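Q: what sequence does this backbone want?
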């Protein structure tokens, strides 16, 4: 390959990579997901996806209760199963509870699926309540649904 052709190929690959990197989501998502702790990154895919959703959509996940009994631990929503606190500077303190609780992860996965299908927050909440309330008391979720 001639040097000019090789240079053009490298430039084309770099430009294509930059374009594709720009299409991967918002700038806010990447730092939060990149900062997930190692114990989340090594968790099963469903758990990791739930943590990723929690940090990229905290205002949405906070609308739904958790029915695993974690309200006794001070949790206030399904978000609390993943995130203890988000500081004003954006620093996230994670909660490891969801790594060992299938109900927490199932609720988050249902929220992800139903929102992707275009369901409204009240519709998702009705589904979550109907599916999971038999397991125990829900957390005291005080956020408005819309």
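A:
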């Amino acid at each position: 390959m001639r040097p000019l052709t090789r240079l053009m190929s490298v430039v084309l690959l770099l430009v294509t990579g930059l374009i594709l990197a720009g299409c991967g989501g918002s700038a806010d998502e990447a730092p939060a997901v990149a900062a997930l702790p190692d114990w989340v990154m090594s968790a099963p895919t469903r758990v990791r996806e739930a943590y990723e959703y929690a940090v990229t959509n905290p205002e949405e996940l906070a609308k739904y209760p958790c029915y695993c009994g974690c309200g006794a631990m001070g949790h206030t929503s399904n978000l609390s199963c993943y995130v203890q606190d988000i500081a004003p500077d954006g620093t996230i303190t994670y909660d490891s509870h969801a790594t060992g609780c299938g109900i927490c992860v199932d609720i988050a996965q249902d929220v992800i699926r139903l929102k992707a299908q275009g369901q409204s927050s009240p519709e998702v909440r009705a589904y979550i309540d109907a599916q999971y309330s038999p397991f125990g008391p829900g957390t005291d979720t005080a956020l408005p649904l819309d």
